[in-house]
Design goal:
196 residues; Helix Hairpins; mainly alpha; 3-stranded mixed beta sheet
Length: 196
């Protein structure tokens, strides 16, 4: 059997499903990966204070990344404000790019109904996550946290809150309860980062 004959089933598969539909499906997968990678790179808290527990309930405030004294300065406040603003803008930009590609898939006349349905489902999921993130941020700010950024990705959540000291177990419990109440995400799947 020649190589051409061995590759014929693969060629038939692409011809039957259509190259364009395969490319659209791959684009949807790549967008999801891009959103995840964007969050992973963007959340690299250089110069920050990490408070990340193994289950969202315990951990230590790590000052090793910023060896300056714990005193508050205007520059530190501006850096913190800038961090939270940048985090929100970066999150929104990634979501906007994903929604733009997914909307293009839905509007593509050559896309199959199955691919369009998958794109619509992903749009709905992203919209729900955006609403839940806004609700979590509002709730945590109403509970006394000065600033907050929530990022939900499926069954996981990353919550970044502004804090001047180590987060207390009561504060961690508040955050976990709020996320669970709004998004139904278990505390084991919640990463909490405290940032000065």
């Amino acid at each position: 059997m020649s190589i051409k004959e061995k590759l014929q089933p693969v060629k038939d598969f692409f011809m039957k499903g259509g190259k364009r539909n395969l490319i659209i499906a791959c684009a949807v997968v790549l967008i999801g990966a891009a959103v995840w990678l964007n969050w992973m790179f963007f959340s690299d808290n250089d110069g920050g204070y990490d408070y990340v527990g193994n289950n969202g309930m315990s951990g230590e405030l790590d000052n090793s990344k910023n060896p300056t004294n714990g005193g508050s300065t205007d520059a530190g406040t501006n850096d913190s404000d800038s961090y939270f603003t940048t985090a929100q803008v970066s999150r929104q930009r990634a979501r906007d790019e994903a929604l733009e590609v997914l909307n293009a898939v839905v509007e593509n006349a050559n896309a199959t109904d199955a691919v369009k349905a998958e794109a619509v489902a992903e749009i709905t999921k992203i919209s729900l996550e955006m609403e839940q993130e806004a609700d979590i941020e509002s709730m945590l700010i109403s509970k006394g946290f000065e600033k907050c950024v929530a990022v939900i990705n499926g069954e996981t959540a990353s919550i970044i809150v502004k804090c001047s000291e180590t987060l207390t177990p009561a504060q961690l419990a508040q955050i976990n309860a709020s996320v669970y109440e709004i998004a139904g995400i278990e505390p084991i799947n919640i990463t909490i980062v405290g940032r000065k």
